[in-house]
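User: Show me sequence and structure for the first protein, then do the same for the second.

Assistant: Starting with the first protein.
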Amino acid sequence: ENQNVSVIGPFPDIQKKAYWMASYSHRTSYFFEGFLIWDMYKENREELVRSHLLNDYVVFDYTDIGLLQDRSLVEQWLEFEKQNMGSHTLIYNKDNIRVYKYEAT
């Protein structure tokens, strides 16, 4: 009931998808390219991630990966997922979409 879905991806492309998912599911979705730009959140990254993602589900949607011109952004997503989601529960993994239940630490 009070769960949030965070979608990580490039703005504005992911914004369109997040708005569609929010309207279809009647849930609020947030999109955070900024988490991938570590210098922006360097000083309070852990606190920001912990406070925002409490009780969230995090979606990594790689279905549009072929449309991206910037391969380095894709590598950033994959590295972010590898470094940050290993201790969280993977609840869905199919067709280039992975959903994690964020476990607050």
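Switching to the second protein now.
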Amino acid sequence: MNAKTACSKRSFRLYPFIFFKMSKAVNTSTNKEQQSGGPKFATDDPRLRDIIIKCKDLEECISYVEKNKGDLIRVVIIGFPFDEGCARNGGREGSKEAPGVFRFHLYKIVNSMGGYLFFFFAKKFLCFPSSPPTKNVIAREATRLSKEVKKSKKGCLHKKKKKKMIGKKVQIFDAGDIDTKLDYDEAHNSLSVTVFKALSNGFIPFVIGGSNDQSYFNALALINVLKKASTEDKSKSSSWGIGVMNIDAHFDVRPQKAGLEHSGSPFRLLLENKDFVDNKGIFSEFAAQGHQCSMEHYDYIKKHNNGANEHAILWLTQVLRQRETLEKIAIREQFVEELKRMRGGKNINTLFISFDIDSIRSSDCPGVSCPSPIGLTSEEAMSICLEAGKCSNVRLMDCSEFNPKAESYLTGRLVSTMFYHFVLGLAQRK
């Protein structure tokens, strides 16, 4: 049963609404492609393009924050418009166009309730904003709560009115793309430096690629941030560690080709990174598909366990689907379980979620270099992004392998909606 069908059931039970107010955007971008998103909409039909703070680069985002300080969660979009790594790995080129197409669809997402994005829980399922309530009584309740929220300066209902209601202001920034004039090695370095700066200035980066080789350089930025922090803060232990989850149909632990990185090698580079190994980093493969992963690569991952912080492989069919069928544990719940397991590792308090969308079945996500007839559903992908956003340990997320040349409209809308739900998750952080 999908969320829309479930919402129409008479037995529907309304659970706590969760609101967050988005700050007004200041359109400072000079990139016409970033300002695209279809036709302008009337004021009674606001879109995310009206509230995303568009900047020409990360430095402008940082400058904006310095002038507009506040207790906010800030997420920044960084584009990696390169696909040479995919070509090196024998895949189809085209993912370099992903950041622009992603923005086109993201900016058109409806910003419900005049600046307040909202969603609500039912007993056994989540009704996403993309499937609005059909019951008039629910719609009336949403309108009533929205009016109360607008009266609140904090952008959420006071605890006295709704004890279980929580809210948090979230700002969405768009820092543009890594310069396409750079050669591939320079682009990787520029990406790592940009993500490092974003993390160091309190942003939660969401990197949209581009080929999957970006993920190692995103992880490297996070490693360098933690390494620097442990060196500067003498009051804390010098030991630290991160957890990295690869949501992917493939392991992506192939060796480099002629010493060159490619879309199949990011996590081999990670597992052999000295800082990651020395500080007992933990790695997890989520939704891997057995017919797309070799036994040699399986053995490689197991061989590189970091002591007590054991790496995990959660197969799509042999683990996730079996537990879903036999134990009635949904994919979303299994993802949350794995986040908790990773956080339970020694010195692990920071997580990076890397989402290769070829892990989503091709009927829902055809626009990838290597589509598969089986995989996660679009609803599962969105719920995973929601839970990733809710987890306060997640400081970085990337999305790879969206290939608009293969298919742009359906997949573009899916990826932009995945980001939307990641932001909704951020709004629930305590």
